[in-house]
Design a protein that fits this description.
382 residues; four-stranded antiparallel β-sheet; two-stranded parallel ribbon; 43% helix; 8 strands; disordered C terminus; 2 domains; alpha+beta
Length: 382
């Protein structure tokens, strides 16, 4: 039997490579108790923000056996999306929006899950067992599991770091009732490096290995539905969907090969360097057309326009004033409020003119607050 399980593991790894996965390992279906404690401490501190789903299914998330008691092993796989170009390339081009590397190509959920299902189907055909496949859509702690499976370690930015692939791995999990021999777990190799902590524009790391999601640009631009807090707006710069700063500065990235060979993750031209003027002009149909097949589509038009307005306010580009002003009439109150702030940053004279004519007609409390607190060059978060 041990030989049979070894053969199965070797065949799984071979198939994983053929499916485009760059990293493979086996974790036990029981995470160390310290993992559950860290999760509880993080949630009790409110650092998950509005991500209530993490709180409501915390027990299932804490360990695979809590989610599926029959599970005996977890097959962990990583698919590289290492970028072919510098993620900081648009940092000094303020009229363009910066989209996180992972979201510039096809939706990784679809790409990774299809590959996982093919591997899982093969396993069921070979052995009498059951399987469940997960890609970032269930209460699964992929990063601790990946560390337990030897794919790497959770770095100080809380993401997985790999010696061979840096901070650029999409993770997928196959839970199975088959008991396989676990791989040797990953070892922390961050050492004294603090690059990921130092680069964060919003100081989202209260300490190494701990993220305050409420201050994270990825959370603010993707998960948060309401107005972006004033203290973070300037620091966001031209990030309009996610943020790669802490990932991109990781020294281990120098060992990662570009994912250019994986055509699914090649950046689409319209997502690699989108013009803020075009994004501000989007209606819902235009949004769905531009972001079809992208994970961005889930966020919806209003959130993307909100983010683009913050970037416009930070751009210093007065040619965007007409586009920003037009959004003062948007049906969505968060968009209107963001347009007010953007206008206050770009043209104080126009801001005063619009404020005089619009405040008496506005009925939304949050939007009125934006008019009342609108100040040119509001202070940044740091």
């Amino acid at each position: 039997m041990p030989d049979d399980k070894l053969r199965i593991t070797q065949s799984l790894e071979k198939m994983a490579r053929e499916e485009g996965f760059a990293a493979f390992g086996i974790a036990p279906a029981a995470l160390a108790p310290v993992t559950a404690k860290r999760l509880r401490d993080w949630l009790s501190g409110g650092q998950h923000g509005d991500m209530i789903w993490m709180e409501s299914r915390a027990d299932e998330r804490a360990s695979p056996e809590n989610l599926w008691p029959e599970a005996r092993s977890v097959i962990m796989l990583g698919m590289s999306y290492a970028p072919a170009r510098d993620p900081f390339a648009l940092e000094k081009i303020p009229d363009r929006g910066r989209i996180s590397v992972y979201a510039q190509g096809k939706d990784y959920h679809d790409v990774v899950k299809k590959a996982l299902k093919r591997i899982a189907r093969w396993l069921v055909d070979q052995v009498d067992c059951e399987v469940k496949v997960f890609v970032d859509t269930a209460p699964v702690m992929e990063k601790p599991l990946a560390e337990a499976a030897g794919l790497g370690w959770q770095g100080k930015h809380t993401n997985l770091v790999s010696q061979g692939h840096g901070s650029w791995l999409f993770l997928g999990a196959i839970y199975t009732t088959l008991e396989l021999e676990a791989s040797t777990g990953g070892q922390d190799r961050c050492g004294s490096c603090s690059a990921c902590q130092d680069i964060c524009p919003t100081n989202a790391f209260p300490e190494p290995y701990r993220l305050d999601a409420k201050a994270c640009i990825s959370y603010l631009t993707i998960e948060s539905k309401g107005p972006i807090p004033l203290q973070y707006r300037k620091a966001i710069g031209n990030h309009i969907y996610g943020c790669d700063d802490c990932l991109a500065v990781c020294p281990w990235n120098k060992f990662a090969e570009s994912a250019a060979a994986n055509k699914a993750f090649l950046p689409r031209a319209e997502l690699a360097a989108p013009a803020l003027a075009d994004l501000l002009a989007m209606d819902d149909a235009g949004f769905r057309q531009i972001f079809s097949g992208s994970p961005i589509k889930r966020s919806g038009r209003n959130r993307m326009v909100r983010n683009s307005l913050i970037a416009a306010g930070n751009s210093g580009d007065v040619s965007l004033v007409p586009s920003v002003t037009a959004l003062l009439d948007d049906e969505d109150s968060v968009v209107r409020g963001s347009a007010i702030w953007a206008l206050s940053q770009l043209d104080s004279t126009q801001f005063d003119r619009e404020k005089e004519g619009r405040m008496s007609k506005e009925r939304d409390t949050d939007v009125l607050l934006e008019w009342e607190s609108g100040q040119p060059n509001a202070p940044a978060a740091r």
